Amino acid sequence: MSVRERFTIGAGAGFAGDRIEPAVRMAESGEVHAIALECLAERTLVNALRVREANADAGFDPRLARRLRPILPHAARGVAIVTNLGAANPAAAGRAIAHLARDLDLSKLRIAAIVGDDVMHLVDEVEWTESVADGQWIGAHAYLGLEPMVQALAEGADVVVTGRVADSSLVAAAPVQALGLTDGALASALTIGHLLECSGQISGGNLTEPGVADLDAQSYSRLGYPVAEIGADGSATIRLLADDPGRLNVVSCTLQLLYEVHDPQRYITPDAILDFTGVRFEEVATNRVAVSGARSSERPERLKVIGFLARRGIIADIEIGYAGTGALARARLAADILRLRLMRELGLSDFLVDLVGVDSVLGDRSLPLHAEPPELRVHVSARCQDGEMAQAVEDEIYSLTISGPAGGGSVRSERRGHVESITGFLPRERCAARIEWTQTS
Length: 441
Fold this sequence. Notes:
Blueprint: E1 6-13, H1 21-29, E2 34-37, H2 42-54, H3 64-68, H4 72-75, E3 80-83, H5 90-103, E4 110-115, E5 127-128, E6 135-142, H6 147-154, E7 159-161, H7 167-179, H8 183-196, H9 217-221, E8 227-231, E9 236-239, H10 250-257, E10 267-268, E11 273-275, E12 280-285, E13 288-292, E14 295-297, E15 302-323, H11 327-344, E16 351-356, E17 375-384, H12 387-403, E18 409-427, E19 434-439
Parallel strand pairs: 1-2, 2-3, 3-7, 4-7
Antiparallel strand pairs: 1-8, 4-19, 5-18, 6-15, 8-9, 9-13, 10-11, 11-14, 12-13, 15-17, 15-18, 16-17
């Protein structure tokens, strides 16, 4: 990718299960130089680690082929793709992308896999923020910055696939490389990366404005995802593709700017510590917002590490439904019965009972009901010492169908291991990222 004055990057995905077609529209539009696909969260990474444990050639996102198949031909025509679909195994993901490219008859496609975020061998050196005793390690991954991605793009990568990198760095890598951004312009690119990392969340998704009608179903069903134009001087504008529906405005940008931010004056990324307090948004047209005022200081000396521990026990989640006349009273009665029996008969202390549709989200802060719901579900979540206890909890819910309030049924149950994610920090020099190349012939 050669140095230019302005660069356009599209946010084609914001999580593993995100929609496919927004990235396709970007690739086909001819308006973007690169597409970032952010598809990795803690839950996704844990699942990938489990898969890699069973198969050393797996552990990347299982949606990789489905997501890349419609846009990979555009990478061969100059639209760079930067993605963390590599999850727990970016090297294997690189090989899988090469295989897909061959199936599509795409020759001379250069694929760079960024490896080195896996720091499982360094867990004893990590400064963890809480105890890691009494658990079995599943994995540990450092949040890499944009340097190895920038290097890969500078060396001619058409596709860059990573494991755990900072989301803002993933989005910023292509414009930083293409424009040679440093200092204030780098702060702008990283800020844009943060704003774009959740795809449709900045362009009308997950947004309700008081006094303003929500987007209609037709608009939500094909919501436009954001595209950012970044200048070599750090100037930036976020917009939607022509004819894409959405609501990209000052409110949506402000909400996304503060998303997952504890201190707006010191938002720590691997590449710089960002100061968002001077960021300003200006609506210059419908679904078009200019962004300015990003600042940054030095990059941190340590990288954040996310660790996953399998703790003892099982989490059991069970529900039972009630419907019809008096459903609320019967559901509340069932919940009271369960609280008594789980403590008295099973000796459980770590459990939650709530009513889905009444208080399962806000708990005691839920608004008072002005009308009784026609149906609802009693939900129990319990931490159990073993499978036998989990079965006993499930049996208590089933027993309500014959020894509890009338009409209980449609019981659903699932169990999962108790996995805990823990944050730590590791000196930057201990995280050695490298590039593994694959090229289709």
